[in-house]
Design goal:
The chain is built from ten helices and 15 strands. The chain is α+β, with helices and mostly antiparallel strands. The chain has a five-stranded antiparallel beta sheet with strand order 1-2-3-5-4, covered by helices on one side. The protein has a four-stranded antiparallel beta sheet with strand order 6-7-13-8.
Length: 447
């Protein structure tokens, strides 16, 4: 023991006097034998977790879903329906790449009964129409596309998938949309949750849409995917104008989630709007996120902005008169319609000449080649819907795991909250309670 103590003290003394420069980096790669390392940025969710895989010009792209409840009836056609809304070649304002995006379910679903098994669900869409020579046989193999992920991927990994951009391609979102179809079905079964997105702005061209009234048919009635048909025509004219010049244009996708039950989300770091923001901002070309009143809400006073509560005379549930909160308060859903907006930049790869640099540090000029969307918005609609669905189903399953384990009797529960809530036996009589009037001037800077 004395010898061990002496060796320890001697070793500590030597370390304490060695200069920092004496510590050379290890000669061998670090071995993670005692540390669990996680892959970077390919997975999303906690209770309902997805991992996407594949590159734009590789053999295929897909997703693995872990945590899907068992006994859910799921068939390929339901997944394909959502992928068809996302696939390329839909119209003149989307990329002409000709892909059927035909999905294959490899595991996790019983082929006989079409019921999920509770085990990981693996799905793949094989690439059929990749044209790598569009990227490899011209200057794009040497030069970085401005505002694309070329330079940053190279800086991070020291290598990049030149053909199609690899994981930075919007083709990666196939896995998200496939998983989103499963999430949508679970949400529909649980509380008839309906998630719908639409293009609400192209550049400065906006629209007038009632978030509680428009339908999927309204969205799909035109190739822009804007339920306001008059505004859609103006938007389409702008996209066409930009497309013919070899340029691109951006805008905003609005997504609503109806019939979301109150209570989803968590305080502090896992606020529902924070999770939704991460989900939506992880999409390619996403540059901004708003929930409810968003940035415009900063122009109002507290009195103007607050959503006052009332008792619904039909259900007896606690509701809000307005919905500037966008269905979320304190990081937790309040049972009203959730409304989020995601802004997308113009597509980076364009047909006009731009200044750039080569990988070895020489200035150059570049004209983008290949097949690209002049406006990502129409195809981004199902992508945003899917990320909102994935976020909500994950929050729903987490809520069930934590807060529905111990059931409380009716006397311990508050009055039901939200649009879909209902008081059993409510007779339509709204009770009034006298409120205490406090003196003006109380310090309410902190609660």
């Amino acid at each position: 023991m004395k010898l061990l103590a002496f060796l320890f003290i001697s070793h500590a003394c030597i370390l304490s006097v060695l200069p920092v420069s004496s510590f050379a980096p290890p000669l061998k790669p670090y071995s993670p034998s005692s540390t669990k390392l996680h892959g970077n940025g390919n997975s999303f969710g906690k209770s309902f977790r997805i991992t996407t895989y594949g590159e734009s010009h590789g053999g295929g792209v897909g997703v693995i879903i872990d945590g899907c409840p068992p006994r859910l009836h799921l068939n390929r056609e339901e997944i394909q329906k959502e992928l068809d809304r996302r696939r390329p070649g839909q119209s003149r304002i989307t990329t002409p790449r000709d892909e059927a995006d035909s999905v294959e379910i490899l595991s996790g679903v019983d082929p006989g009964s079409s019921l999920t098994l509770g085990t990981p669900i693996s799905m793949i869409v094989r690439n059929k129409d990749q044209r790598s020579k569009d990227y490899l046989e011209n200057d794009m193999s040497l030069s970085y596309r401005p505002s694309h992920a070329d330079a940053t991927y190279d800086a991070k990994y020291g290598v990049r998938a030149v053909a199609g951009g690899g994981r930075s391609s919007a083709r990666e979102t196939i896995g998200r949309v496939a998983a989103g179809a499963v999430a949508k079905k679970i949400l529909d079964i649980d509380n008839k949750v309906e998630i719908l997105g639409y293009v609400s702005k192209v550049q400065e061209i906006g629209c007038d849409v009632d978030p509680d009234a428009f339908t999927l048919d309204d969205v799909e009635a035109n190739i822009v995917r804007c339920p306001d048909q008059s505004a859609a025509e103006t938007m389409l004219a702008r996209i066409d104008e930009i497309r013919k010049t070899g340029n691109s244009v951006g805008g905003v996708v609005t997504c609503v989630a109806r019939n979301v039950p109150a209570g989803l989300g968590a305080p502090v770091f896992d606020k529902l709007e924070a999770e939704l923001a991460k989900a939506c901002m992880s999409l390619p070309a996403a540059k901004g996120f708003e929930v409810g009143s968003g940035f415009e809400g900063t122009m109002l006073t507290g009195k103007e902005h607050n959503d006052e509560f009332y008792i619904d005379p039909e259900t007896g549930a606690t509701r809000t008169k307005t919905n500037r909160s966008g269905g979320i308060q304190g990081g937790i859903s309040n049972g009203e319609t959730i409304i989020v907006k995601v802004c997308f930049k113009p597509t980076s790869t364009i047909g006009q000449l731009q200044n750039t640099v080569t990988r070895d540090g020489q200035e150059a000029e570049l004209r983008g080649k290949g097949r690209h969307d002049p406006c990502v918005l129409p195809r981004a609609v199902p992508m945003v819907e899917s990320m909102v669905a994935l976020c909500l189903v994950d929050a729903l399953m987490s809520q069930n795991a934590q807060c529905n384990t111990i059931q409380l009797d009716g006397g311990q529960m508050p009055n039901p909250l939200g649009k879909t809530a209902k008081v059993e036996g409510f007779d339509g009589v709204v009770k009034k309670k006298e409120t205490t009037r406090y003196n003006v001037g109380l310090n309410v800077s902190e609660e």
